[in-house]
TrEMBL record:
<feature type="domain" description="Intradiol ring-cleavage dioxygenases">
    <location>
        <begin position="60"/>
        <end position="174"/>
    </location>
</feature>
<dbReference type="InterPro" id="IPR050770">
    <property type="entry name" value="Intradiol_RC_Dioxygenase"/>
</dbReference>
<dbReference type="InterPro" id="IPR000627">
    <property type="entry name" value="Intradiol_dOase_C"/>
</dbReference>
<keyword id="KW-0223">Dioxygenase</keyword>
<protein>
    <recommendedName>
        <fullName>Intradiol ring-cleavage dioxygenases domain-containing protein</fullName>
    </recommendedName>
</protein>
<comment type="similarity">
    <text>Belongs to the intradiol ring-cleavage dioxygenase family.</text>
</comment>
<dbReference type="InterPro" id="IPR015889">
    <property type="entry name" value="Intradiol_dOase_core"/>
</dbReference>
<keyword id="KW-0560">Oxidoreductase</keyword>
<dbReference type="Pfam" id="PF00775">
    <property type="entry name" value="Dioxygenase_C"/>
</dbReference>
Length: 396
């Protein structure tokens, strides 16, 4: 009798356990976690200190390897408002490409290795991680990377953003050809700068950007252009006026180290406004010529003729005495031969301004009128970064 009672109790426990798993699975399917779940992100809470700071030094900093400083700002979804109080958890390989544990580590986090840590953004949304540069996995094709998991105070669960990858890593381009960036939180690609023997990488994060199920939304009357936080893509417009006249040159490919403004105009050109903007931008280019590049990209596909469009922009450049702004054109914003389509520009917008810093889009404006207030807004010198004068490593 006792044996039968024990068997019934076991069956009851199994039933309750299975029932609980089914109910939990049903809840997750009905209310999936923000970001779609993350393998390993939940480990961020194990060993997390009670007091977190905006600057963290990883256990790898004093070990063998190339010293690396990752620094940036976390922004709200608009890409412009700094986000304080955001927890970033990071974990990475050592200089040999392994997630090496150390004695005394919690068994649950050994797979993340001992080079792991946390920062909490300050009042201005900034953070800094002092670590070493991770090595790629031995005998593998994955590029070297640093994992990131983000926890916002008013979001139910943590979610992962794009891993930090390095633009000088020879494994990067072959990998992205097979597995393109998701741009979760913005582009994960960082561009290394050198300060003595130290490598510095600027990396901003846009909360919620390309994160599935993210509850906060931005409403815009007109949509045009890639998001703030993503990389300014390569494309090859025809140059009618400027240093690359009569060529088909990619602006960020040739002048990627510079910072710049790309001024797009499509099927609704207001030539009075265009002329006012170009005169203002040419003056900005003169004032900041040591680091600023400006491009006008015209793409009116109504009655397009290449020779006529070239002559039209040449005449415009002569009329306005343009000295610094590159006047360029493409057949339309959907054109795939020039690859301008990857910019995602709305041809019916009056204009789209993309402002980038070291290839990364840091601001964007749509349907912007040439008023003194808007001139002042664009002349706030947003494009020059803190590390512009630092050298880059030599790589292909």
């Amino acid at each position: 009798m006792q044996k039968r009672t024990y068997q019934l109790m076991l069956l009851s426990l199994v039933f309750l356990s299975c029932s609980g798993q089914v109910n939990e699975r049903a809840r997750n399917e009905k209310h999936p976690p923000i970001g779609g779940g993350c393998d390993g992100c939940e480990l961020m809470y194990i060993g997390m200190p009670e007091q977190l700071h905006a600057v963290d030094t990883s256990p790898g900093w004093n070990e063998k390897g190339q010293k690396l400083v990752v620094t940036g700002t976390v922004f709200q979804l608009d890409g412009k408002t700094p986000a304080p109080g955001i927890i970033i958890y990071y974990w990475q390989t050592d200089h040999n490409g392994y997630y090496t544990p150390v004695p005394g580590m919690d068994q649950r986090v050994k797979r993340h290795g001992h080079i792991r840590g946390w920062v909490k953004t300050g009042e201005n949304g900034e953070y800094t991680i002092r670590t070493i540069r991770p090595a790629p996995y031995p005998d593998d094709v994955l590029p070297a990377h640093i994992h990131l998991s983000v926890k916002e105070p008013d979001i139910a669960n943590e979610y992962y953003t794009d891993e930090i990858n390095f633009d000088d890593d020879p494994l990067l381009i072959p990998h992205f050809k097979k597995y393109p960036q998701e741009n979760r939180g913005g582009s994960g690609i960082v561009r290394i700068l050198l300060k003595d023997r130290l490598q510095i990488a600027a990396h901003d994060i846009i909360l919620g950007l390309n994160i599935p199920g993210y509850p906060k939304k931005i409403t815009a009357a007109t949509r045009s252009g890639r998001s703030i936080g993503e990389d300014q893509p390569s494309f090859t417009p025809f140059h009618a006026v400027g240093p690359d006249k009569d060529s088909q040159t990619c602006p960020v490919c040739k002048y990627g180290r510079y910072h710049g403004i790309v001024y797009f105009v499509g099927n609704r050109p207001d030539w009075k406004a265009v002329k006012n903007w170009l005169q203002f931008l040419d003056g900005e280019s003169e004032e900041h010529k040591n680091y600023l590049k400006v491009y006008f990209v015209y793409a009116n596909d109504n009655g397009y003729n290449k020779e006529e469009r070239q002559a039209e922009l040449e005449k415009l450049g002569t009329e306005l005495h343009i000295k610094h702004v590159a006047l360029t054109f493409v057949p339309s914003f959907y054109d795939k031969e020039t690859e301008v389509h990857v910019n995602k520009i709305n041809p019916d917008a009056a204009n789209t301004f993309i402002i980038y810093k070291h290839r990364r889009i840091i601001d964007k404006y749509i349907d912007l009128a040439p008023t003194p207030e808007n001139f002042k807004m664009l002349s706030k010198d947003k494009t020059k970064g803190n590390f512009f004068d630092l050298a880059e490593p030599v790589h292909d």
